[in-house]
Amino acid sequence: MGSEHPGDSRSRDDRQDSESSGEDSDWSKSRDSRDSLSEWDRQADRVPGTDSPVSINELFDLLSQPGNRYTLAYLVRADGAVPYDDLVEYVVDKGGIPEGLSTEEFRDRVATRLVHSNLPKLDESGLVDYDPQQQTIRRTDATSVAVPYLELALTQFSTE
User: Fold this and answer.
1) Which architecture does CATH list for 56-158?
2) Beta-carbon count within 10 A of 42 CB
3) Cβ distance 140 to 129 under 8 Å?
4) Contact in structure between 107 and 118 (CB atoms under 8 Å)
5) Most exposed of 12, 68, 77, 145 (fewest Cβ within 10 Å)?
6) Which residues pair with 40 in a beta bridge?
7) What separation in angstroms does the CA of 106 have from each of 63, 93, 103, 138?
8) Where do the domains of the chain lie?
9) Each residue of 129-140: pLDDT tens digit?
């Protein structure tokens, strides 16, 4: 007898017999769990309890980059728009200069990465508002969505 599900060794008739006899079926419980997880996956695309445009996966991906964490941490504490040069200095100070690089070389790398990668991605996600012409960055309503995860990440990385 074949199975409707590749990993299920029970035939359809066996499942119907146990279900019709009132027995709880591991198969049906498992299927219900899978259905619940699938529904959760679809709903978990966005941060629960918020109207944030950023998905959970995107948020964690963005927070995996130190420059993004430092940028968001700086913006959370700032009032209004932040000048780009001030943000670069903050990230350089927090990031620590890697061995073998001068302060100026590291500053140039940070500045390049912020302009060409970090800030455009954060802006696209809706977590920040980046104005390349004015060279300013400001937080948005969505920035607050990252705060609990950001605090956790910064706490963990500051103890290492």
Assistant:
1) Orthogonal Bundle (1.10)
2) 9
3) yes
4) no
5) 77
6) none
7) 21, 10, 5, 24
8) 12-43, 56-158
9) 999 999 999 999
Q: At 152, is the secondary structure helix, strand, or coil?
A: helix
Quickly tell me which residue has 């700032």 as its tokens. 78
Q: Which two tokens stand for residue 73?
A: 């941490």
pLDDT at 39 over 80: no
> What angle (nearest 5°) sits at the alpha carbon of residue 129, between those of residues 79 and 44?
110
Q: Which tokens sit at 81?
A: 């728009």
Distance CA(62)–CA(29), nearest Å, equals 36
Task: Look up tokens 């963005």; give the residue.
Answer: 62
Contact 105, 125 (CB under 8 A): no
Query: How many Å apart are CA 143 and CA 52, to the nearest integer?
Result: 9
Q: Is the pLDDT of residue 104 over 60?
A: yes
Task: Answer whether 14's CB lies under 8 Å from 87's CB.
Answer: no
